[in-house]
Amino acid sequence: MTETPILSGHAAWAALATPPPGIAFAREEGRLDPAGFTAVVRASGLGRPVDDPARMAAMLAGANLVVTARDAAGRLAGVARSVTDFAYCCTLSDLCVDPEFQGRGIGRALIAETKRIVGPGCMLLLLSAPEPMTWYPKLGLERVANGFIIRRDG
């Protein structure tokens, strides 16, 4: 199996920040409906506290970069929710695409759009759930091992 090369540099990622046909991207921080966000997270299978509406709403309210993908009818197809200083670091906390829309390149394009927005001086960190750990390298993301964590209590 051929390993996908790491896609490096802001310009390389920014060039991929184009939504697939029939999909539009928008920044929706402060405007995305928490119920809609929760529905996409739940449908995607991303392990988040989807049965705790107050916590999901707080997660969304605390994010200062929320990029959405919507189809022509306005249906929410995917979300990239991040916390960033727009200068040095960005943590892409949630990347989810509704299964109905998966396989069209929306996830990769949402990552690229997030990177485009934060700019060339800002690194983008994505902590993966176990299952997609093999997916991200196929997109050209670099695997890192130099991190530490203090886990949440719930």
From TrEMBL:
Pfam family, one: Acetyltransf_7
Keywords, comma-separated and alphabetical: Transferase
GO molecular-function terms, A-Z: acyltransferase activity, transferring groups other than amino-acyl groups
Occurrences of domain N-acetyltransferase (ranges): 66-140
Entry-linked SUPFAM superfamilies: Acyl-CoA N-acyltransferases (Nat) (SSF55729)
Superkingdom classification of source: Bacteria
Name of the protein described by the UniProt record: N-acetyltransferase
Organism: Roseicella aquatilis
